[in-house]
Specification:
The chain has helices at residues 17-24, 42-46, 62-71, 89-101, 173-183, 190-202, 206-219, 224-240, 244-253, 262-274, 278-290, 309-320, 324-337, 342-354, and strands at residues 4-10, 30-35, 52-55, 77-80, 85-86, 108-117, 123-134, 140-142, 148-150, 155-164, 301-302. It is an alpha/beta fold. The strands form 2 sheets. Strands 1, 2, 3, 4, 5, 6, 7, 10 and 11 form a 9-stranded mixed β-sheet that branches. Strands 8-9 form a two-stranded antiparallel ribbon.
Length: 355
């Protein structure tokens, strides 16, 4: 059985940190907390859990803080979480089993990261992250903001999931760090361009976001999943600006980087359906239902596009062209995923009255 160090960096997390640590305290073998300047009760709370607590002077560099935490780990493997992450009961069981059975030739273990969950417990969006890494490999974090852990070697894609339970944070923090770096004349990497564009997008600065997403795409030297995500964000920007030609252009541009993803098929379906082109919309929604959901990619997955959403939209498409039997069939498929969805229940009642 391997041993595990949990390494975390925290600041003013009194509302979430106990929930996080309670979910994993019985699995990990040591808890290392690096505090970057808390002024609330965070350190008082973590003292009830942590083996060691360190103070780290904040220098606008998340990677530096995480590397400091990793440097102080002593167990075989290092596991990292943020304060608003938790492990659900089933995932605690999976992690415990993984701890007992992990082949020590494994250098890194990826886990699902569930970013959003609906009221029924269904995962809305998720991605994969390298979460458990062999300490002796001395893997390093890179990037002051939206940092990433660079790993290599023998990587295992596990079915353990970490669930993000979002709480309020300083929404301007990352944006201000990026803009400080720009003022200092720093040359942004492709990754920096992408994540700075994301910050601009989330602050509704759409024209600025478009500029930096395009700069990122022009580098031709980034991660494929980020290119695909940038195409999605650009199509969102142009849709918000009522520029439907450019919206369509960047949806289609995503196909340059990989075979069509269900998310982009649904985008195309929506655009055609919105323009009352039911047959074209039908084609793209039908294609979305036929694709195989990627299980080993680290990029973002919108699970609705791979499950119920295209079937619900196919119900609309088939209803518009008068094929109520197929409309009902696809509505029933959607109902298997979301049995209490009001639109699905409305469709069921309406179509049964016709059939």
């Amino acid at each position: 059985m391997i041993t595990i160090s949990l390494c975390m960096i925290v600041k003013n997390e009194e509302n979430t940190i106990a929930r996080c640590l309670d979910s994993v305290k019985d699995i990990v073998d040591e808890i290392i907390i690096v505090d970057t300047g808390s002024t609330d009760k965070t350190k008082e709370i973590v003292s009830q859990y942590a083996n060691r607590i360190f103070d780290f002077q904040w220098i606008d560099d998340f990677a530096a803080a995480r590397n400091f935490a990793f440097k102080n780990a002593k167990m075989d493997y290092i596991f990292w979480l943020d304060a608003d992450d938790i492990l659900m009961k089933d995932d605690c069981k999976k992690l415990s089993k993984l701890k007992e059975t992990l082949d020590t030739t494994i250098d890194s273990v990826t886990m699902h990261y569930n970013l959003n969950i609906d009221e029924n417990g269904n995962v809305i969006t998720s991605l994969r992250r390298n979460r458990l890494v062999k300490r002796e490999n001395n893997f390093q974090w890179y990037g002051p903001v939206h940092e990433y852990l660079e790993v290599w070697g023998n990587i295992l894609n596990s079915e353990v999931a970490v669930t993000h339970c979002s709480m309020h944070h300083d929404s301007d923090r990352n944006l201000l760090i990026y803009e400080k770096r720009i003022k200092q004349g720093e040359q942004f990497s492709p990754r920096d361009l992408f994540y700075y564009a994301n910050e601009l997008f989330e602050h509704d600065r759409l024209e600025d976001a478009i500029k930096y997403y395009k700069q990122f795409l022009a580098t031709d030297n980034g991660w494929i999943e980020d290119y695909i995500s940038a195409c999605g964000r650009l199509s969102d920007c142009y849709s918000a600006l009522d520029d439907y030609e450019n919206e369509l252009y960047f949806i289609l541009k995503s196909f340059k980087y990989d075979s069509p993803r269900a998310e982009f098929c649904c985008r195309l379906g929506y655009r055609f359906l919105h323009n009352n082109h039911s047959y074209q919309a039908l084609f793209w929604y039908k294609l979305a239902t036929e694709l195989e959901k990627p299980s080993d990619k680290l990029g973002m997955i919108n699970h609705s596009c791979w499950t119920w959403l295209p079937h619900l939209q196919l119900c609309v498409c088939y209803s518009q062209i008068g094929n109520h039997a197929l409309a009902y069939e696809h509505n029933e498929i959607a109902r298997k995923y979301l049995p209490d969805h009001p639109s699905i229940l409305h469709n069921k009642q309406y179509l049964e009255s016709i059939l």
